Amino acid sequence: MTxxxxxxxxxxxxxxxxxxxxxxxxxxxxxxxVVLEFSADVLISQLVSTVGQNIQFGITKRCIGDSLSFExxxxxxxxxxxxxxxxxPTEFDLWFILVILSNGQIYFEEDELFxxxxxxxxxxxxxxxxxIKNKASDDRWDNxxxxxxxxxxxxxxxxxxxxxxxxxxxxxxxxxxxKVASGLxxxxxxxxxxxxxxxxxxxxxxxPPGLKFYxxxxxxxxSDCINVDDDIVDEYTTHLIELYEKIKDKDFEGIYFKGLxxxxxxxxxxxxxxxxxxxxxxxxxxTKLDPLTEDxxxxxxxxxxxxxxxxxxxxxxxxxxxxxxxxxxxxFMCEDLNDIPMVKTWSNKKFKKVVSHVAFEMIxxxxxxxxxxxxxxxxxxRLSIHAHxxxxxxxxxxxxxxxxxxxxxxxxxxxxxxxxIPTPWHNAIFKLSDCEKYIVSFLRxxxxxxxxxxxxxSEIERCYVxxx
Length: 468
Fold this sequence. Notes:
alpha/beta; six-stranded antiparallel sheet; disordered N terminus; 3 domains; Dityrosine synthesis enzyme
């Protein structure tokens, strides 16, 4: 059957009220998904005084008023838990809760011996704003976003822990051969990684515990929508990590790589494999699917998707932001997919119809992955390569430094409208002898330079090098 969740059959994500960690005395960390009707003190007292029921996968369930608590035990009487609405969990629900409690970064061991770093939160916030933050056309950082950002940073600084940030990005190269040089990371990814490394290093100078920067690839979330095989995503990620290891200093440990399959890592997957075979998700292009990855895409949509019917209604409303987002995705995907052989055999009408379906699916997948990241990284500073208003919970960043790179063929206002900032995986990088900066542009620019320059692809520099 084709997956189609309704409001009455809400995904598990929508049932979650909060994620927390605790011992037998205190709530150690808590991230509310909704406004709770009671305080953390009340929650801990109810958890301690209520007898739990040991159920499947080593999970303990309790009924707390009009909520359910699902907990997993850690060492030294510590527990991580998930508070939900009252519902009758299926085996899949329990397995998914286990995955989130096992893989989610919910409990943080406080450094009781750390020194007090005066003004660390303000300094890190100021550094972020002055360096990698992207300023959108309708930026709300000064009035709202800065306060949200500081709260996220302070969760870590008041514990004396490295600040942790998460960025869904670095999916794979575009399948459009007129945009990128190849399917592997090149100078664009190198420049982006070096920029992140510089920010991580600068944070360590003002806050010695430092910064952990998680790059959470969304390649497997969208690969079938953008005409990229699952194994090509894996190859891109492998080379990306190799590039990082090559360019970083030996003692630098600031960047960590995750992906969809890492988020759903489980030793109990067999318990839900039969159920996953009963559901399907929409594929509008012919790509090679990895069975494990396809199962995890099903888990993502089934557990974390927003309402399908509501999205359909939203994009029919001529004034709804979702309509503009859908149009933006359609425009972008029309350009990204028009080079593939399959499309060239279609009529223009069929192409536009498929692109509309792909754009719809990408919005669904983007929402679902954002929801998953929120569950797995509940306390993290959440960053994005899309243009946001910067009022939280996400904050836009520019991976390519404007002091080092310039763009050709990208109009900023249009990019803002499509919620997309030029990235290394949709472009090629050019180094011209009479230009001080690297040029970020589509690959087709190379043919335009031949008349006035000499040169071409440099395997050593992993970009196009031209001399006047």
